[in-house]
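Protein modeling request. Please complete all fields; requests missing the sequence field cannot be processed.
Requester role: graduate student
Desired output: 3D structure, token encoding
Chains: 1
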Amino acid sequence: MKKTVLTFGLLILALLVLFQLSKYTLVSGDSNIEIIMAAVAIIFFSIGIYLNKRSLHKNVLPDSEIDLEKIDALDLSKREYEVLKEISLGLSNKEIGDKLFVSESTIKTHVSNILVKLDAKRRTQAVQIAKEMRIL
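Delivered output (136 residues):
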């Protein structure tokens, strides 16, 4: 992050220098500096394209596949798996219940079953274990 900020900061500084040079050429009437400025502008344009491709279009590695066999081995029901996915999004029991159209106490039961099946003490630990097992 610091490298990116520094790079763009230096580019902005260089552009300010170019603006000052253009003001100088306007006052002095020298047309040779305009050619140099055009060349520098093309160079900056090329640098901008390079940075854009490098930083914004990184190749995203595909997420690992969900291991359905482990879900079956853990004996997680479809509803428990849905609740686990919602927990991983950071939703509370009430929010999960509203989203899945069940009561909060039903969600508490599902969460309790998930914690037992994943051998976790907390919801966050259950999500961590599920990610390590590649079921999320």
